[in-house]
Structures are given as C-alpha cells and as structure tokens.
C-alpha cells in the first residue's frame, strides 16, 4: 500500500502588491467621482441662479401688469443688474415730483432713491455675471412697454452668467417685447 501525504498550504492574506493595486484603483475611481460631483454641483448652482434672474425679470413684468390695484402707480417696474457685487435689483420707477404722467422719470434704477428698491438678489459666490449686455430693463404699464438700458431702439440684450472658473456658462436673452429665452 502506498501512503500519500497531503499537505495543505493556506494563504493567510493578500500580498502587498495586491493591496496596493486595489487601493490605487479605489482611489482613482473615488477621485473621478469627486471631480464629477463638483462639476455637477456647479451646473446645478448655475441653473438655480439662472432661474433666480429669470424670476426677478418675470416679477417686474408681472408687477407692471398689476398696477391698476395700487394707490400710487409707479411709472414702471424694472431690474437693474450690477457686476460688482453680482446682484440684481427689482425696482419701481416713481416720479420724484409726483407727476402722474411720468414725464420726469429716468427709466432706470437710481441708487440715491432708496424707495425705488423693492427686492435685491445676490448671485451665489461661485457664480458671476461674465457679460452684461443689459444693465437696466424696465416694463412700463399698462402694455407693458419694454425699454432696455434706457434706449428705445435697443431690440435685445444678453446676460451671461458663468462659474468663477469659467467652466460653465448660461445665457439669458431678453427682447424689447419682453420675451425671455435661455441658452
């Protein structure tokens, strides 16, 4: 009879190279996810800020339609955009002399008249106005008539917002008919 001796050899763990390869693959995948997550987060913030800007413009337009219910009727409602700091101001254009036909209004935001300001929004710190083709847009009731930058002949204007590092950008276009489009 032949005796066969079995010897069992057990691996007691992973080799150092196997552990290093596993850790490097995990770190590369984690780094990619973190990078992708930051880009997605910036895009979401950019879309949110674009919606805030469109909302404040729509609010000015809506307020110009509803002037019939007010005791003191403003000559118009508008939005003023400022690059430093990045903010938008919803304002009412009121005649300084209480002239009911609004012959002496400037059709723009006047910082020295604090009663004109209705609301102010600031852009997120990671977003900036990269290009302002509009500084003032005003809606004059009852139609409303739209005047961009106090120029009756100006047909449209662009507002470009982007991330601080210019990695992503959104464009808002406003026409002198009050139409707002985005890109």
Number of helices: 1
Q: Please state how the strands of the largest beta sheet are arranged side by side.
A: 3-2-1-5-6
Write down the overall geometry.
Answer: rod-shaped
Low-confidence sequence ranges = none
Q: Could you say which structural class the secondary elements and strand pairing correspond to?
A: alpha+beta
Q: Which range best describes the helical content: under 10%, 10-25%, 25-40%, 40-55%, 55-70% or over 70%?
A: 25-40%
Key structural traits:
1 helix; alpha+beta; 183 residues; 4-stranded antiparallel beta sheet
Tell me the layout of helices and strands:
Blueprint: H1 16-65, E1 76-82, E2 87-93, E3 117-122, E4 127-132, E5 136-140, E6 145-148, E7 156-163, E8 169-175, E9 180-182
Provide structural commentary:
The strands form 2 sheets. Strands 3-2-1-5-6 form a 5-stranded antiparallel β-sheet, covered by helices on one side. Strand 1 and strand 2 (87-93) form a beta hairpin. The chain contains 1 helix and 9 strands; from the N terminus they run H-E-E-E-E-E-E-E-E-E. 27% of the residues lie in helices and 29% in strands. It has a single domain, classed as minor pseudopilin epsh fold, CATH 3.55.40. By secondary structure, the chain is α+β, with helices and mostly antiparallel strands.
Task: Kindly summarize this structure in a few lines.
This protein has 183 residues and is α+β, with helices and mostly antiparallel strands.
């Amino acid at each position: 009879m032949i005796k066969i001796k079995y010897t069992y050899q057990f691996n007691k763990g992973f080799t150092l190279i196997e552990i290093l390869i596993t850790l490097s693959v995990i770190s590369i995948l984690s780094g990619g996810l973190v990078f992708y997550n930051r880009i997605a987060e910036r895009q979401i913030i950019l879309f949110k800020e674009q919606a805030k800007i469109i909302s404040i413009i729509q609010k000015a337009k809506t307020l110009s339609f509803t002037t019939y219910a007010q005791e003191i009727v403003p000559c118009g409602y508008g939005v003023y955009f400022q690059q430093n700091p990045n903010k938008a101001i919803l304002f009412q254009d009121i005649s300084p002399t209480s002239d009911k036909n609004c012959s002496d209004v400037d059709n723009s935001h006047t910082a020295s008249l604090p009663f004109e300001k209705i609301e102010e929004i600031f852009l997120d710190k990671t977003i900036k106005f990269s290009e302002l083709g509009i500084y003032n847009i005003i809606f004059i009731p009852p139609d409303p008539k739209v005047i961009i930058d106090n120029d009756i002949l100006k047909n449209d204007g662009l507002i470009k917002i982007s991330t601080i590092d210019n990695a992503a950008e959104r464009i808002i276009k406003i026409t002198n008919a009050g139409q707002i489009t985005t890109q």
